[in-house]
Amino acid sequence: MGREPxxxxxxxxxxxxxRYLRRLTFxxxxxxxxSQETFLRAFRAYRALxxxxxxxxxxxxxxxxxxxxxxxxxxxxxAAYDGAKGRGREDDGDGPDGVARFNEARVAVEAVIDALPTxxxxxxxxxxxxxxxxxxxxxxxxxxxxxxxxxxxxxFRKIRHSLEDAQLPAAEGSA
Amino acid sequence: MSPTMSSCRAIQPDLVATATGDAVPxxxxxxxxxxxxxxxxxxxxxxxxSIDRIVGDIRRAPVGGDHADIVRGDLEWRLAELRRRAVTxxxxxxxxxxxxxxxxxxxxxxxEYLDSARGLEASRALRRAGVEVLEDGNxxxxxxxxxxxxxxxxxxxLAWPLDYRLAASDFHREVLQATATLPYGAVVSYARLAREIxxxxxxxxxxxxxxxxxxxxxxxxxxxxGGTGALTGxxxxxxxxxxxxLSLEGVPVVRARRDxxxxxxxxxxxxxxxxxxxVPTCGSLSTLPLxxxxxxxxxxxxxxxxxxxxxxxxxDLHPLSA
Lengths: 175, 322
Known about the structure:
Chain A has 175 residues and is mainly alpha-helical.
């Protein structure tokens, strides 16, 4: 029982997990549902969590699992309805095409992140937005640390190839 | 050198990691050596650094449509709901076989003898109860330890907080609460218990309520017996367990041809609500029906219940032979 109360866990991590899911899902209603489900599940399992477990990484793992399950379910639903009609998710319509100036590079990068395959996107957001260590990312994605690194590397490569050189400001420092 | 050459391809993961602050040991040195001789890769390194800065901006920017506070308010409400319904449960092994203990925030909700150690899913009571069952950390361990002490004869009281939410009705709850006050080493009949709660004609209903006792051992329904002194029934078909629990408390049980019954002649007796206990042959006690009596296994047990030795039969001077 020496563990901190679940309320303290919520206070410490809810906003971050919600924002993580918000970045993964695009639709705020879905992020709301998934973040609630994450914490309800966590609450059910919290007592049985080993005392030395990293609670933050554990919550990310639950959220990532739920997100991936929800994608699979959505995919099945879509497949049932309209076959191979392509990606049916909500988008803000800002593809990288019209973006030419480098002050718009951020929008372009976000669009690329949004279009990444699930594991790459989750790994990239966990690493670069929430700054989780690779071993925790690997646990969340049920993969090796090397695979987690490879996901982030692939994400960077895709971002790089989607941008024109002109969109990338020259470095201030040296190599 | 062109970046499509094999050495440039090979260095790419290290190059990206170096530019984005993720380099493994040794990678930075490899990248430095490579870009010193390769201008295109030097440019690539800078481009990845630019991308990393953009990603840093994204990290610092607020997320659009952020309703974290509202979502958390909803969540807190749902959690409070869940907490009210929830019990934590665990199956322990005991000398009586696998035993499940469940508790809510208010107290112990369920003690259940299981026929197999398959875990929580073996519990019929939990399935029927419609409660939210949570994995138990160590909330029930202290209770389990006390049961072990009790079964080893090292403890005579289980002063647990109890939650009677699994009682089937208010009447059942009343029966359970009255049963919970029966002292260690004492037995009464179902009829006596019915009278105690002011329902003298409800003997069968009392027996039914105890048949569905969700809290055996701690609500000691094993101390309640039939009007003839027969043990009658326990937890479905576990009459042997009832005998075992009574024997543990020193209550003499004899096996008759077709049943097991307490040995009334070998127990101390209190009639109605007397404050004194007697040997069973005192006055007209041996002719009184069981529904008027409380029987005690030993003098110690009677005196622990606050009773004094009878001044005419003097059980303190002439105790029953063991």
